[in-house]
Design goal:
The structure holds 2 protein chains of 2 kinds. Chain A is an all-alpha fold. Chain A has helices spanning 2-17, 21-45, 53-66, 77-97, 104-110, 123-130, 134-145, 150-157, 161-179, 183-187. Chain A folds into 2 domains: 2-110, Rna Polymerase Sigma Factor, Chain: A (Orthogonal Bundle), CATH 1.10.1740.10; 123-187, Winged helix-like DNA-binding domain superfamily/Winged helix DNA-binding domain (Arc Repressor Mutant, subunit A), CATH 1.10.10. The two termini of chain A are 18 Å apart. The two termini of chain B are 22 Å apart. Classes of the chains: A mainly alpha, B mainly alpha.
């Protein structure tokens, strides 16, 4: 599947380079759809509302457009695209974070990795999650494993959304500490 | 704004407005390196008895070693200026290994007795001053050009540009300098290049955001 997408994107982007507007429109449309899901997952994992995803999709599309010359046609499109998208997502979160407790480094760790196919919810992590305090564990499960939104979880647990985020943040910190430097390995 | 409208607007302009990043880098060097060359020729210039020095060996090895650092800097700058690239460590590894081999050779051939003399050399202060001076224009040119690239980690891209610029400055200075020992090279040349990397990293963090 990933292969097909890579081949499609490459073909479309090469056609765009030689002036094919229709191919470029299709490329951007495909990418927008792909990024939407990607950004929603990233936001959810960072404990933020997936409703912000569309802004990030648009900012990323603009960045892809203005930086489209930085893709070398000898290179795969996927890693390049994810590089731009991660950059824009982190940037967007940083800009909107304000008083939020999550640091950019932590966000970067939680963000979905490029086409790795591994989910955070692998069995090792589930074991670690189970060792968390009960409330934190249920929040992590709801958001990471079941993919629920932070505000839904808040309503269900009768907490404020901010409290859910703080709890999620603490849980992530505990998990990161348990992982130590091995956290990167879990991604892929 | 609706995303579909945005896509329609962007799609009208499919052809990239800028050349590939390696062209941007080459163009920056083509403009900035002559500034350093003119500066070099007008001030210190190439050393006398260049050919006999080449025949002696260490001078040529010095230029080769610095040349390898130029290659490493070129590879790293290109990769750090574009999203989704792996870190190309082969050039840096080759340069590092060659450096260590040369130091070992120096100690074996020239002897261990007066190693500190070769290390301190005759022109350490001059070297530390002139390499950065000769690297300044290329670093400025590279940083300016990389603003049009897309460095995901601006500090790293700046450091890579500093490595490339510093190595080019060192190559020029190496044509003048008569301290040819790899020991001298390993300390003073590398320190000067390291300084350019530091400057590049600091400037890159400010200039290369996008």
């Amino acid at each position: 599947m990933v292969h097909d997408r890579e081949a499609d994107w490459k073909r479309l982007l090469l056609a765009a380079r030689s002036g094919d507007e229709a191919a470029y429109r299709r490329f951007l449309g495909d990418v927008a759809q792909y990024l939407r899901g990607w950004a929603q997952r990233g936001l959810t994992r960072a404990g933020r509302s997936p409703a912000e995803a569309e802004d990030i999709v648009q900012e990323t599309l603009i960045a892809i457009h203005t930086k489209r010359h930085t893709w070398d046609d000898g290179q795969p499109v996927g890693p390049w695209l994810h590089g731009v998208a991660r950059h824009k997502l982190i940037d967007a979160l940083r800009k909107r974070t304000g008083h939020d407790h999550l640091s950019v480094d932590e966000l970067a760790e939680v963000l979905p990795m490029a086409a790795s196919g591994t989910d955070l919810a692998s069995s090792d992590i589930l074991k670690m999650v189970a060792s968390l305090p009960e409330r934190q564990a249920s929040i992590v499960n709801a958001i990471f494993v079941e993919g629920q939104r932070a505000n839904d979880v808040a309503a269900k647990l009768n907490m404020s959304e901010g409290a859910v985020r703080v709890a999620l943040h603490r849980a992530l910190k505990t998990l990161a500490a348990t992982f130590g430097t091995g956290a990167d390995d879990a991604h892929g | 704004m609706r995303t579909d409208d945005l896509i329609n607007a962007l799609a009208r302009d499919p052809v990239p407005a800028l050349p590939p990043v390696r062209h941007l880098i080459l163009r920056a060097l083509a403009i900035s390196l002559p500034v350093s060359v003119v500066l070099f020729v007008a001030t210190i210039g190439i050393r006398k008895n260049l050919l006999p020095a080449l025949a002696e060996g260490w001078f040529g090895i010095k230029l080769l070693l610095v040349g390898l650092i130029v290659v490493a800097g070129w590879q790293l700058t290109g990769s750090r200026a574009q999203p989704g690239r792996n870190l190309p460590l082969l050039g840096a590894l080759a340069a590092g290994l060659a450096m260590l081999t040369a130091v070992a050779l120096d100690l074996r051939i020239e002897g261990v007795a007066d190693w500190s003399e070769r290390l301190i050399g005759d022109n350490a202060a001059k070297c530390m001053m002139l390499i950065p001076l000769l690297s300044a224009a290329p670093l400025a040119g590279l940083l300016y050009a990389l603003r049009d690239a897309a460095a995901v980690r601006p500090g790293e891209a700046g450091a890579a540009a500093g490595l490339l610029a510093g190595a080019l400055g060192a190559l020029l200075y190496g044509l003048h300098c008569t301290d040819d020992s790899p020991l001298f090279l390993g300390v003073w040349y590398l320190a000067s290049i390291g300084l350019m990397m530091l400057l590049g990293a600091l400037a890159g963090r400010r200039l290369l955001r996008w």
